[in-house]
Write a structure and sequence with these properties.
By secondary structure, this protein is α/β, with parallel strands linked by helices. The protein contains twelve helices and eight strands.
């Protein structure tokens, strides 16, 4: 299987060139973070194969994604929020978990049935989260019903996933696939692995008794709006055909700090996707035998997925409604004059003229 390394493609070309640019951009960040405080924690609702759950989402503050340390993905700024030094001690990571449990106790009427745990990289990478910590977290949440942990496919190994399955948790591994198209993943996202590696990770998770939730990226840099929509529809369908993959979460790209996306955005060379594009993909793939959801982070803002400003909240509510009910008819209840502009962008935008409209 592919291993994360900056030494890929010819020197000075392909991923090597992307990584050199990304390392320069990330070097501008001089923020520091407390290793005993999580990056973020919140309560929400999520659709799963067993129905809708109240969810507790935890983003642990770790030493950061090893691929991002090499340069990393063009859109991802999460490593900028990670602790300096490359690692966080077991005791500090468990202090973060206690902080999140306190947040839940203060803000929820009942414990969440679903726990979702993310890091700035891979929860199953033992350089980020040691085996001791992984096992302690499994025990901490053993009385819940379901857990989601995120990882690159390299680290999806049966024995690591089994820590959660063995305590009785319905377990899903979320994999940041981004796209089912290898060339787009390599050249637009700057992610090193192939779709075949994702398929292997699905098989390993299934062997451990877990499922897979695929994360896709709507509109990475260098794609027109039409190309991004077509790539997402194709990717959802390809993921749905992989045994063990029961959910696809399509994440519209937003402009995060210290990324190549931000550089292009400031230079007038990138616009986040239209919310109409998100709705189009969800509506078009609703008949696939897989749960398809989307959570447009920063919707309605210039740095997040947006339409004209007048209809953004309405379309966002329809997307959230679809996530929970999987009923494409919700999109028939929203309209706006800006949909005609979106139609024109999809029809006319080309690589040399993007973004055609802001």
């Amino acid at each position: 299987m592919s291993k994360p390394s900056p030494d890929v493609y010819e020197q000075g070309k392909g991923m090597d060139a992307h990584n050199a640019v990304m390392r320069d951009i990330r070097a501008r960040n001089d923020n520091t973070y407390d290793p005993r405080e999580p990056t973020r924690v919140w309560l929400d609702e999520d659709n799963t194969p067993d129905g809708v759950y109240q969810s507790l989402t935890i983003i642990l503050n770790t030493g950061g994604c090893r691929w991002a340390r090499a340069g990393g993905c063009t859109m991802c700024g999460y490593v900028a929020e990670s602790v300096d030094g490359g690692s966080v001690a077991h005791e500090d990571l468990m202090a973060q978990i206690r902080h999140c449990l306190d947040h839940e106790a203060e803000n929820a009427d009942a414990e969440s049935g679903l726990i979702k745990i993310y890091t700035s990289g891979s929860f199953l990478d033992e350089r980020e989260v040691p085996a001791e910590t992984r096992q302690a977290i499994a025990e901490t949440f053993a009385d819940r019903e379901r857990i989601v942990v995120e990882s690159l496919p390299d680290f999806v190994e049966e024995e690591r996933v089994a820590d959660f399955v063995d305590v009785g948790l319905e377990t899903d591994v979320a994999v940041g696939l981004e796209t089912a198209t290898d060339r787009v993943r390599h050249d637009c996202v700057n992610k090193y692995f192939d779709f075949a590696d994702f398929e292997d990770a699905c098989a390993d998770a299934k062997a451990a008794g877990a499922g897979i939730k695929a994360y896709l990226l709507m509109k990475p840099v260098f794609l027109s709006e039409k190309e991004a929509v077509e790539d997402m529809k194709r990717s959802v369908r390809k993921c749905a055909a992989v045994e063990g993959c029961h959910t696809v979460s399509m994440n519209p790209c937003n402009v995060q700090r210290y990324t190549m996306v931000e550089e292009l955005y400031h230079d007038g060379g990138y616009r986040p996707p239209w919310l109409w594009s998100v709705a189009d993909v969800l509506e078009s793939t609703a008949d696939e035998d897989v749960i398809v959801v989307s959570d447009p982070v920063g919707h309605g803002s210039d740095r997040g997925p947006h339409n004209c400003g007048d209809c953004d909240d309405r379309v966002q509510r329809a997307i959230k409604d679809f996530d929970l009910r999987q009923d494409p008819s919700v999109f028939e209840q929203v309209d706006c004059a800006c949909e005609a502009t979106w139609d024109a962008v999809v029809a006319r935008e080309r690589s040399y003229s993007l973004p055609l409209a802001r």
